[in-house]
Design brief:
By secondary structure, the protein is mostly helical. It contains 21 helices and six strands. Helix 1 crosses helix 7 and helix 1 packs parallel to helix 17.
Length: 523
């Protein structure tokens, strides 16, 4: 591979124009995108960590490795605004796009189509999470492999970093590590690689596994570390249908487009997924090693999703990344063993068709995100800032309402745990069942202790009217269906009409005495 400044003028202009166009669409959409709870969770965890040690203690509840959080830690040395996180993610996406455009062994059309596809542009671009950094590291690994296949130490180091991004990327990096180990073993048999280098590579990969396990190992009181133990054909089919969704992720044309597909029949998606998977197996069948990487990696991701019940396209999207990775590897091998022209033509038609569908999905997602709020949290927080800036705020349930805390810059009160909170600690303490009447009673107790009216934020409307509880606003336009909010105002418990008359006298007389005392002081 030649450096960027040595490529032909036509190719240089293509890289620059496509890159700037991608950054323009990405930056425009990110500007209008409202961070949702998963984005706020990472930012607020880092914000509320006094030290690196404190941060690692919190990560055990998250189930994510540490690299993204450590980068956010550096960002928060300079700013407490979540826009700093979005800027970091924008830079990561820009670097990913540049590596792809300059070095990926695809034609110009396929390079452009991939960048404007659903995952690089929207899911791993606009939305700031730890999946973007995994895409960058994956491409840098492929670049290192392309430039020098025998530089096993660099490849192992990049895979070690990839293991620290997220658990699905850990699976992909594990499959690629086995491929690196196999290539190194082949080289060692011919004395092309020394034993000391083999040991060094094994040590680096072992450190990567240990660091990931150390970070994500759950505490004893974790709430969400639930693994599925039973075998269900319905469950297996529900996971396998994601093959179709990640290869053709065109969503429904509606406000709640996220995690939807234009085909709504589960059985049809399952049938199409089986056909696509068989087709991709034949696509990679010309190279046994590439075929094993795709086959084993895809099945490992699906098994993990089945056992852990992660049924969102952002998780299964790594199968699409694995597909692109195997195409990259196949193109490298094709240079060494040229394939027939008809086979290459058919492969390019298939790949271009898939990439074109991703462009449609990516642009649809960006358009809807521009026109509609991704979450109602920002609008709700803006309303509260202007109308009730000094009023205590309680919320339920915590998992959906805490983004409002991020936008307000202050904690909310959890009516179940009776504690202030800014982010979610996934422990058993917060699992407290509650009914509507129980939540209202708890809110009135909180208002009484605050000796003032309070704001109550709910994700749902109350099923009946309660004394002293008044609806004041609702924010029900949101791409993320679980982040629509209903806001009530509550009066303190003792001042509502359901308090016995005798108790009311006990409240009135002390207030009269207090008023007379104040008049004496003023006099």
């Amino acid at each position: 591979m030649q450096p960027l400044n040595s490529i032909s003028p036509n190719n240089k202009r293509f890289v620059l124009f496509t890159w700037l166009s991608y950054l323009a669409v990405l930056g425009f959409t990110m500007y209008f995108h409202e961070p949702w709870r998963d984005e706020w969770q990472a930012w607020l965890i880092v914000k509320n960590s006094d030290s690196i040690g404190s941060l690692f203690q919190k990560l055990g509840y998250e189930g994510h490795p540490s690299l993204w959080y450590l980068l956010l830690w550096i960002v928060q040395l300079f700013t407490n605004n979540i826009a700093g996180m979005q800027l970091l993610h924008f830079i990561i996406a820009a670097a990913t796009a540049l590596v792809w455009l300059r070095y990926a062994p695809f034609n110009k059309l396929q390079k452009a189509l991939f960048l404007f596809g659903y995952f690089p542009l929207y899911e791993y671009g606009v939305i700031s999470r730890n999946y973007g950094i995994s895409l960058l590291l994956l491409f840098v690994f492929l670049l290192a492999l392309t430039k020098n296949r025998s530089n096993y130490i660099l490849q192992a180091f990049l895979l070690c970093l990839l293991m620290q991004t997220n658990l699905v990327a850990f699976i992909v990096s594990g499959i690629l590590a086995l491929s690196v180990a196999y290539n190194m073993w082949q080289s060692w048999k011919t004395a092309a690689v020394s034993l000391s280098r083999c040991i060094t590579v094994a040590l680096i990969l072992s450190i990567g596994v240990w660091l990931c396990a150390f970070t994500v190992w759950p505490p004893g009181d974790i709430q969400i570390a639930v693994w599925r133990s039973n075998i269900s054909f319905r469950g297996i089919g529900g996971v396998f249908k994601f093959i179709w969704q990640v290869m053709f992720p065109i969503p429904q044309a509606q406000m709640h487009f996220w995690n939807t597909n234009f085909i709504q029949s589960s059985w049809l998606m399952l049938g199409l997924s089986v056909l696509i998977f068989i087709g991709l197996v034949f696509l990679f069948a010309r190279n046994r090693q590439v075929l094993l990487i795709f086959f084993a990696g895809s099945l490992a991701i699906l098994v993990f999703m089945y056992l852990k019940y992660l049924l969102f396209i952002r998780h299964s999207g790594h199968i699409y990344l694995l597909f692109i990775t195997c195409l990259w590897l196949l193109n490298i091998h094709s240079r060494q063993k040229p394939a027939g022209g008809n086979w290459i033509y058919r492969r390019n038609v298939l790949v271009t068709t898939i990439l074109s569908c991703h462009v449609l999905a990516g642009l649809m997602a960006c358009y809807i995100d521009w026109k509609q709020p991704f979450t109602g949290a920002k609008a709700a927080a803006s309303f509260l800032k202007h109308q009730y800036s000094n009023t205590p705020i309680a919320a339920d349930p915590d998992v959906f309402t805490f983004p409002i805390s991020g936008y307000l810059g202050k904690p909310l009160y959890n009516l179940r745990t009776k504690k202030d909170f800014e982010y979610i600690t996934w422990n058993t303490e917060r699992v407290v069942p509650a009914t509507d009447s129980g939540i209202i009673e708890s809110a009135k107790d909180y208002a009484f202790h605050q000796q003032t009216n309070i704001i109550l934020i709910l994700r749902y409307r109350l099923n009946k009217e309660y004394e002293g509880v008044n609806l004041i606003a609702s924010f029900e336009e949101s791409i993320e269906e679980q982040e629509m909010y209903i806001i009530y105002e509550l009066t303190p418990k003792e001042t509502s009409t359901d308090i016995p008359y005798g108790n009311k006298l006990g409240i009135i007389f002390p207030k009269i005495n207090s008023f007379l005392c104040k008049k004496d002081v003023m006099a």
